[in-house]
Amino acid sequence: MRVLIIIFLSIFCFVGHAQEVDNTIERKDLKSQPYVDFLTGKVKVTMHPKTGTVSGEVTYTFKILEATPRIRIDAWDMQLGNITMDNKKVRVDYDREAIVISADFKPNALHSVTINYKTTPKKALYFVKDNKEKDQIWTQGQGKYTSNWLPSFDDMNEKVEFDLNIQYTKGYEVIANGKLVSSKPVNDSIQSWQYDMTKPMSSYLVALVIGKYEKVVETSESGIPLELYFYPEDKDKFEATYKHSKKIFDFLEKEIGFPYPWQNYKQIPVKDFLYAGMENTGTTIFSDAFVVDETAFVDRNYINVNAHELAHQWFGDLVTETGGTHHWLQEGFATYYALLAEKEIFGEEYFLFKLYENAEQLTALSKTEKATSLLDPNASSLTFYQRGAWAIHALRNLIGDASFKIVIHNYLEKHQFSNATTDDFIAIAEEVSGTDLSGYREQWLESIKFPSQEALNILTKSDFIKNYLSLAQERTQPMAGKWGALKEALRFPVNDYLGQEVVYQLEGKTDDEVIALYAKAFETNNLLVRQTIANTLSTIPKELQEQYESLLKEDSYATIEPALYHLWANFPEKRKEYLDQTKDIVGFTNKNVRILWLVLALSTKEYQTINHQQFYNELSGYTSPKFRFSTRENAFTYLESLQAFSDTTLEHLAEGATHHNWRFRKFCRNILDKLLKDEKYRKKYVDLATKLPKKQQEFIQKRLTP
């Protein structure tokens, strides 16, 4: 039983971090080419899903700015075909990383180069298999380099206007940057999609998605087409998934104060994406874990990721950092404007509490060896995102709303379709505000220590934050001294955050006074307060049993999951009733409630014993590659606890250990390494190894080798 509690908590923590946006860049020594400006890229590619290959050609036009004997185009591990410059043969050197073209390049001369190639990309473009004929192909250029599937430019300072022509099997949707100008058959089985762009962008933002989709097109107040894609089977989840999307777009365009710079805006969910979302130019790709129904929306919605990736269309896509030192100019701004969008939807207190939570995390980080300045190119995501947002919020407080909005407009206008540094931004802020920002820069950008006191001074301008901090100070006080304050905080209508704080302060206590406060907390009917009870009250007093049971009817999968487990553990005589009541609830996209239900049903000997094999088959079936990796993680976690791996689930674990998603791959490898310490499972893998696909077989053999 204790093991199950630990497992449950680990899964719940994973759910809690699901919306973290992580686009950490894999940096390397990039060779800039200030002597040449690549202008346009005409791309024509064909995808071959059976072999996982890409073939095609790309033609770049470029202008020589300074005399040079060579130019460079990045291309990782490709088979090169014919390469011509200005329709003539040209000298080419290739080291499996870059194509170097040598010639006597003169200043101001215009040229074109055409490269034919074929490649089997190891990253940046992914072929995602599905046994239901719903295969997907999608890209992730940031941190992985588009040059793994398309000869292009790893240096984000090189901006090109790309036009993509993509050929693929009929019956699928092919989505890419820009405006779709034609879609026509090539032959009986192949279709060609032509996309046109009108403005330049960095190569890491080139994107395409291929899959089975439908879409709804809305129009922003400024006339921008908003294309919202969804799987045909998820039509009933469309409204909840994309709730407030148009409102977010209209709000951000007005709040930023600079017109949306691209032809249209598309949003496409994909399976097993590497991150929560990615802001490809005009074409955001996001994890289909955020495809939710109305109940899931309460706990795990797409709002923050939606707004974050949209803000990047200005901060990152329109104006791009020159390098990692200035990464906060992208992630800090995207995080800040996403918070402003959430403030518009969820209110001022939500916004302030998020800032408070972020400040708490940053203060804790400052006390560790991992603390860095905001300008450290190797800073953590917490630093780039949350500290970056705080730095922007602090600047706004310092120079005022009016000056801040002019700064943002002038910054975007001056550096549009180009790159910028921190110095560029600060110079504009100083010019507009007439303020010397050297102190601000030292404190918020350069200092390793997060300026906690300054953040607190900004936060405590709010009475809400003052009231919250006053209540939080009661944590160290005995119950007798704070009971009245806790009771007062639960007065109707209860504040979300004060109510949760009360429940946290009750944890681990079950005397009569505490039970009375729990009863009052239940009666608030506040979803977040009741959810906090479900997560923290694991030993349920008999006096609260009936109220606790009401949590199973809550419109929240994040509440039902812990409530079901705790009730099952506390009241064995009612296990059948609890299981019957929740047998049809699936939960989030990771099937959190259903998978827990299966484990509890299997652990209840007297419950539907005749169906236990069926329950096990369903549980183990969720480890299959046809399910999202988050679902598979849940199933693997419980199977590890039960020590109930079959040969099939061991094969699925080996597949997971070589998966394209790095988080899931690491998760599976950790479990697999633990299993291989057990001679029983080690022998099973020795027997299974020869039946596995080559990639998995090689991986297992390495793990089995001492």
UniProtKB/TrEMBL annotation:
GO biological process, alphabetically ordered: peptide catabolic process; proteolysis
EC code(s) of this entry: 3.4.11.2
Gene3D superfamilies attached to this UniProt entry: Neutral Protease Domain 2, tricorn interacting facor f3 domain
GO terms, molecular function: alanyl aminopeptidase activity; metalloaminopeptidase activity; peptide binding; zinc ion binding
Signal peptide positions on this chain: 1-18
A GO cellular component entry from the record: extracellular space
Cofactor: Zn(2+)
Residue ranges crossing the lipid bilayer per the database entry: none
CDD domains: M1_APN_like (cd09603)
Record domain Aminopeptidase N-like N-terminal: where: 43-205
Domain of life: Bacteria
PANTHER family (alphabetical): PROTEASE M1 ZINC METALLOPROTEASE, PUROMYCIN-SENSITIVE AMINOPEPTIDASE-RELATED
Family membership: Belongs to the peptidase M1 family.
Descriptive protein name: Aminopeptidase N
Organism: Aquimarina algicola
Lineage: Bacteria, Pseudomonadati, Bacteroidota, Flavobacteriia, Flavobacteriales
